[in-house]
Write a structure and sequence with these properties.
Elements: H1 3-11, H2 26-30, H3 43-48, H4 65-88, E1 94-99, E2 102-107, H5 110-115, H6 120-127, H7 134-137, H8 178-181, H9 191-205, H10 214-221, H11 231-242, H12 252-267, H13 278-293, H14 297-313, H15 336-360, H16 379-384, H17 393-396, H18 406-423, H19 438-455, H20 470-497, H21 501-525, H22 535-554, H23 562-579, H24 583-598, H25 610-613, E3 621-622, E4 637-638
Parallel strand pairs: 3-4
Antiparallel strand pairs: 1-2
Helix pairs in contact: 9-11, 11-12, 11-13, 12-13, 13-14, 13-15, 14-15, 15-18, 18-19, 18-20, 19-20, 20-21, 20-22, 21-22, 21-23, 22-23, 22-24, 23-24
């Protein structure tokens, strides 16, 4: 193009720009009304006789400094993640992960995705969940690990964190960035589900594991993002709330796996400062409870051991020690409620450790004689924050008053003592000497302890007045189960060594009375299936069946009387109904049916469903705890930690 042409183009008239819209007066602008722009006063201001002022110029838009700072901080955070990922995984392929509507770069290999322990099969559990919002159960959107490759975001991927319809849900956004830290890209459940799971946990599961103060937890959960409970604790509570829930049971395992993933990942951070916390101890005790209820006993024992060691690292077993020379791991509690919550976390860990020992026979990690922490206060005091002084465990075993969750701990301590007495008999115990033998001295001491505990049982635990209280029912069931376990082994020694018949009659009477009490409680509470979800409640029902099998075995020709037969049928029917929901009760039901069959009592004790349940878990291998094993049940073998693979020289097919 020539210079003349350029000059001609410059001299050509330029198109006039679009005229700007006149400015509205300040009065109309503030009230968001349409202004007719009349001068000197618009029609609205003239009618109201108000001052009409027009701005001299348009206000220039300002950049919000706070937004700029937030974006800069977020970009710096993402750059830090990239730098850490590049240092730890230099050979991984670069992939784009969509976070909060932004495309950020992270290095996530397929191997790492598998190591998370959270598989695509877990997400499939959400697809068939009826009754959930479509935004939560939508295909390939939620609870997934969508990785965006080649800088191309799939359609709808921007909803991973900012979900349509979930913007107002509490917990639906990830302000704390915890999920980003783990390289995860999953959304939390919608608020309706979270509310349901919280309600389910604190109404049905909390009675057996009151380690989390509901008010403090909810305040932290719905409060400042910096003070939110760690993801591992949130998922552990949701897993327990979903367990056996009529609507959410199918996704309980997904929540459980994520809780384990987060708590194990926290252990690998730093030098331990990320997991040596009360919240992580709470997570481990809840994970242990979940695994025990799912009959994952080997895994539950390992989780219980981790929880027990963690509370010892936190010095929760020495909270009330007069002089503690060990360095502290926690700061002082802000109030008595926090101090009480620490006590409860320790005692739940103690309970899990004791139950693991009862079930497997493995040694306890927490030794009773070394505990210097008072028992939990009453539930009313804990809920209200009213300070209350509780006794020590050894004082309660001697008759000191107690309340609330302490009854649960007393039961565990009694069962642990009886288990040691029954299954760790030495040759020096001389069970043939009913007067001076160490075995019978321990027997009388434990029997006196049980009598003392029955005598000084708090009024709030006595039946039938408190039959609607789950804790009262649980404590009474298991006190009677303790009596049965103690006197079963006593009867065995009496018959083996042909001791005085008066001892046999006394043990026989105590066994029968305890079984009748359990049958009576079962009759009153059989409609409450959630009550028997605790492993020890199903254990007590099974203990009662062993008494009636023993009575029938004493006289195979005539069997048992009509009253005893009615009680046995009632207990079997209750176990059958509950076993449809609870797997643990199914294992005990199978063992009860095997006891009847293998002791040659099928013709005397005629149960229509006997053969249906006897091979439920593989016939000769038994899934019942070691504590439940008596002379009646020794026809079955105890399942090893790796069933089907032991012994190593001749593994079972």
């Amino acid at each position: 193009m020539s210079a003349a042409d350029d000059k001609a183009q410059l001299d050509a008239p330029q198109p006039s720009s679009k005229p700007k819209k006149p400015l509205s007066c300040l009065s109309c602008k503030v009230r968001k009304l349409k202004c007719d722009h009349e001068r000197p006063a618009c029609t609205r201001c003239a009618k109201t006789n108000s001052e009409c002022i027009y701005p001299e110029a348009r206000r220039k838009p300002k950049l919000l400094q706070s937004n700029v700072k937030e974006l800069e901080a977020r970009i710096a955070q993402v750059e830090g993640y990239l730098k850490e990922a590049g240092q730890s995984r230099p050979d991984t392929t670069s992939k784009d992960i969509l976070v909060g509507g932004l495309v950020s770069e992270d290095c996530v290999s397929g191997k790492d995705q598998q190591s998370n322990g959270i598989t695509w099969e877990d997400d499939a559990a959400f697809q068939n969940l009826n009754g959930l919002p479509s935004t939560f159960a939508g295909e390939d959107q939620l609870f997934s690990h969508d990785v965006v490759e080649d800088n191309e975001a799939p359609e709808g991927a921007q909803l991973l964190f900012g979900l349509a319809g979930l913007d107002n849900y509490a917990g639906a956004s990830f302000e704390s960035g915890q999920l980003i830290d783990l390289g995860m890209s999953e959304a939390l459940p919608p608020s309706e589900m979270i509310e349901d799971l919280h309600t389910s946990f604190f109404s049905t599961q909390y009675h057996y594991m009151p380690a989390v103060h509901s008010g403090r937890y909810c305040k932290a959960f719905y409060g400042n993002s910096l003070n939110k409970p760690p993801m591992c604790l949130q998922y552990a509570i949701w897993a327990m709330g979903a367990l056996w829930h009529p609507k959410y049971d199918r996704i309980a395992d997904v929540f459980y796996k994520r809780a384990r993933h987060y708590v194990e990942t926290d252990e690998l951070k730093g030098d331990g400062e990320h997991f040596i916390t009360i919240a992580h101890a709470q997570t481990w005790v809840l994970i242990t409870a979940y695994e025990a209820r799912a009959m994952l006993y080997t895994r539950a024992s390992m989780s219980a051991a981790r929880g027990s060691r963690l509370v010892q690292m936190l010095a929760l077993d020495r909270i009330d020690a007069p002089d503690d020379l060990l360095p502290p791991s926690l700061g002082p509690p802000i109030d008595w409620t926090e101090l009480e919550e620490r006590r409860r976390v320790f005692w739940i860990a103690f309970s899990n450790d004791a139950q693991g020992s009862i079930a497997t026979g493995w040694n306890s990690i927490i030794r009773t004689e070394e505990i210097m922490t008072r028992l939990p206060a009453s539930e009313a005091a804990f809920a209200s924050g009213q300070e209350e002084t509780a006794p020590f465990l050894d004082e309660v075993m001697k008759g000191a008053p107690y309340s609330g969750f302490t009854g649960f701990l007393v039961i565990n301590e009694m069962l642990k003592s009886i288990m040691s007495h029954v299954h760790l008999i030495k040759s020096s115990d001389r069970p043939e000497d009913a007067i001076n033998g160490a075995f019978w001295q321990r027997h009388r001491r434990l029997d006196n302890q049980l009598s003392t505990l029955f005598l000084f049982m708090p009024e709030s635990f006595r039946l039938p007045e408190n039959i609607r209280d789950p804790l009262a029912t649980y404590i009474n069931l298991n006190f009677h189960a303790c009596v049965i376990c103690l006197h079963h082994v006593a009867l065995e020694k009496i018959e083996t060594h042909q001791l005085d018949d008066s001892l046999r009659k006394e043990c026989h009477s105590l066994l029968k009375n305890a079984a009748e009490e359990i049958a009576s409680i079962a009759k009153l509470t059989s409609h409450r299936s959630s009550l028997f979800s605790n492993p020890l409640c199903a254990f007590s029902l099974y203990c009662a069946t062993t008494v009636y099998v023993y009575l029938a075995k004493q006289d195979p020709s005539s069997g048992i009387n009509s009253k005893d037969m009615s009680n046995l049928e009632l207990i079997i029917n209750v176990m059958e109904a509950i076993s449809r929901i609870h797997l643990i009760t199914s294992a005990f039901l199978q063992q009860a049916c095997l006891d009847i069959d293998k002791n040659g009592l099928s013709s005397i004790i005629k149960l229509p469903n006997l053969y249906q349940y006897r091979d439920l878990f593989g016939g000769p291998a038994s899934s019942i705890p070691l504590m439940a094993r008596s002379p009646i049940s020794r026809h079955t073998q105890m399942s090893p930690p790796l069933p089907g693979r032991l012994p190593l020289d001749k593994p079972r097919p």
